[in-house]
Hints:
Order of helices and strands: EEEHEEHEHHHHEHEHEEHHH
Structural class: alpha/beta
Number of helices: 11
Bound molecules: adenosine-5'-triphosphate
CATH superfamily of the largest domain: P-loop containing nucleotide triphosphate hydrolases
Amino acid sequence: xxxxxxxxxxxxxxxxxxxxxxxxxxxxxxxxxxxxxxNVDLQVNTGEIVGxxxxxxxxxxxxxxxxxxxxxxxxxxVRYKGQVLPPKSFKVTAAGIARTFQNIRxxxxxxxxxxxLVGRHTRTKEGLWSALLRGPGFHKxxxxxxxxxxxxxxxxxxxxxxxxxxxNLPYGEQRKLEIARALASEPGLxxxxxxxxxxxxxxxxxxxxxxFAIRDKGIAVLxxxxxxxxxxxxxxxxxxxxxxxxxxxxxxxxxxxxxxxIAAYLGEPFENAPGAEEVAEVEAAEANTTDTAxxxxxxx
Length: 300
Ligand SMILES: Nc1ncnc2c1ncn2[C@@H]1O[C@H](COP(=O)(O)OP(=O)(O)OP(=O)(O)O)[C@@H](O)[C@H]1O
């Protein structure tokens, strides 16, 4: 699949093709006597979707936390577009890295649109006084933010639900909303922590298409997932963490066939073709989907 980040469709945070957006070197994170992540190197370039897989407790989320300023690595360095990242998560977001969480963290009693507007705060310049006085600058900035938030809701297939309360959305749509909120900070790199957890096969497939569409806008993606079909369909490169260390890194075919990965994580060689039962489930669900269903416009 090709990526053209020079088109007018490129996201505001998009980077030139081939640029290294994330450069993590020797990242180690210790909690007392436990080394959760040990000396991990990982690069992500523009136009790439990179997967991070491994057994439960392998250190994947801890590594994400080291990339996003939630944890300060005990050792090692993380650079975004060549700059060492500041050790504060809001500064990391402002620098251009956005993330979603393993457990959905939406503002349940706010509307779908308001949740996305919250995600834009790192990109709005209007300060407290401007907000209190509600001058022309404030109204202009607010209108621009709303317009961008609606564009993002359109992109993820939730525009028609902009006024719904987040808590009333079905689970799969809450996950999409989290992605829209993360995109609202106009990142150059998006980190997704188990984006398909709890989804049915149809929702998982729609998420796959959404991630491809995000990549096609020039935003690099690093994704943690336990769904191996999702990972191997989606990713240009996959890194495998086991007990905090990077065991293998390579393209999907290399990782799927690696004896060490099979022994430590997959258990048995990965069978790429979906089972007949899964195909039937997706086809039945798609047959029931009306033309107005959210996410329809992202289908490719
Ligand atoms: N804040 C913390 N304090 C102490 N130990 C922690 C902390 N966070 C994570 N750990 C430990 O670090 C190890 C790695 O955990 P982590 O959540 O990063 O794994 P993971 O690969 O994301 O697992 P999963 O796939 O189950 O989400 C585990 O042993 C965990 O108990």
